[in-house]
Specification:
Number of domains: 2
Structural class: alpha/beta
CATH topology of the largest domain: Rossmann fold
Radius of gyration: 21 Å
Length: 393
């Protein structure tokens, strides 16, 4: 089958970690065989290539085309408009990219199906393109696109239209499926295919070596993710005064870095908080293996990849009880859920976990249930069913 994947969430040479969770799913789909897949991963047009201008400045450095892990990717530019950008984004995205999709068809890649990732604006744009070209579309909801954006009236209406227009929808957890169903989408048209974890890349290693590598002496926690409010890094820092002797290592970059450093200084724990910046996946695996627990205090998550990554390294987690997270942290071997998103509740959960930690081999064994195989087979079955139905088979 020929599949065109369409998403603004995809790694590129300028930002190789951006949207890596989408790339991982597609890599495993292609490796299963029988799929000819290409990716259209649009990036916003921006005139300056510089980190000084934030994410737009970084993405401005993305090449127009590249190949990653044997998959061909194009990065067309699309316009963004301040103030009205959120409501105009799907139409702007579709108008800016439908031409390149048509050229791909004329060039010989007459694909069978559009596989879109992230409902808004990506999925809406893909549904527009699919309707104009007469191609079926499958849209995957991944988190904020279904647990936050639908609170805005016009985007909610467009998400509902796209889900109705699509041949099927996929969500990465049951909680996000429930969100789509609450918008009026029939449950049998929404399929839950959770994210997996690369069990070779994320694996247990020699903890003593890793702890020396990171200079850890005593209890240590990791908080991983983009430095923005909804990731809850400030809650983790806020818990440190209640966890004497515990070191916190934060992996990630983002606009909240200065605020978080100021908070750590104000609370008198700056000497126990280390900002590591954004780490590559091999660096993350080593970090997970070095610490006693990964802490994820997010206000919203679909299916947080960092949770399974840490568990695959044998490291249990402490996480906020939101959206799809309880579906991941479902047994004691995985870790514990916080009773509330507060520094006090987080400290309480950490103390309980460190007082009676699960066996790290058992944590790894739990993660081994979440390889990519089931997700890949689910995609292949769904795509085949849709393609065969359109061909009259």
């Amino acid at each position: 089958m020929k599949i065109l994947s369409y998403t603004t969430l995809y790694p590129n040479a300028a930002d190789p970690s951006f949207g890596v969770f989408v790339e991982n799913r597609l890599r495993h789909l292609v490796s299963a065989g029988g799929v000819d897949l290409r990716v259209v991963a649009p990036v916003p047009w921006f005139p300056f290539r510089s980190k000084r201008f934030g994410r737009y400045g970084v993405l401005a450095g993305a090449p127009s085309a590249e190949t990653r892990h044997g998959i061909s990717i194009v990065h067309p530019r699309y316009p963004t408009i301040p103030r009205i950008g959120m409501t105009a984004a799907p139409a702007l995205l579709a108008m800016a990219t439908i031409g390149i999709v048509r050229r791909m068809i004329r060039g010989g890649f007459d694909f069978d199906l559009i596989d879109a990732h992230y409902f808004y604006p990506d999925g809406v744009a893909a549904a527009i393109i699919g309707r104009r070209l007469g191609k079926p579309v499958v849209i995957t909801g991944r988190g904020t696109d279904l647990n936050d954006i639908p609170r805005y009236a016009l985007p909610r209406k467009m998400i509902r239209w796209a889900a109705d227009e699509a041949a099927a929808s996929i969500t990465v957890c049951q909680a996000l499926k429930d969100s789509l169903v609450a918008l009026g989408i029939a449950p049998d048209r929404v399929h839950v295919l959770r994210n997996g974890v690369d069990l070779k890349q994320f694996r247990p290693m020699d903890r003593a070596v890793l702890r020396r590598e990171f200079g850890i002496d005593g209890p240590a926690l990791a908080s991983v993710g983009y430095l923005i409010p909804r990731k809850g890094h400030e809650i983790v820092i806020g818990a440190l005064p209640l966890l004497p002797g515990t070191t916190l290592l934060i992996a990630g970059d983002g606009p909240e870095e200065a605020h978080l450093k100021s908070l750590a200084a104000r609370l008198g724990v700056a000497d126990r908080v280390r900002f590591l910046g954004r780490l590559p996946h091999d660096g993350l695996a080593r970090l997970y293996g070095a610490v006693d627990a990964l802490v994820l205090a997010s206000s919203r998550e679909g299916w947080a990849n960092v949770l399974l990554e840490a568990m695959a390294c044998g490291t249990p987690v402490v996480a906020s009880n939101v959206w799809g997270t309880p579906e991941v942290v479902a047994v004691p071997e995985a870790g514990v859920l916080m009773r509330a998103r507060t520094p006090e509740a987080l400290a309480e959960a950490v103390r309980g976990l460190l007082a009676s930690p699960p066996d790290r081999a058992a944590t790894r064994a739990y993660a081994e249930q979440f390889s990519w195989d089931a997700t890949t087979q689910g995609q292949l079955q769904l795509f085949t069913k849709i393609i065969d139905a359109r061909a009259g088979n």
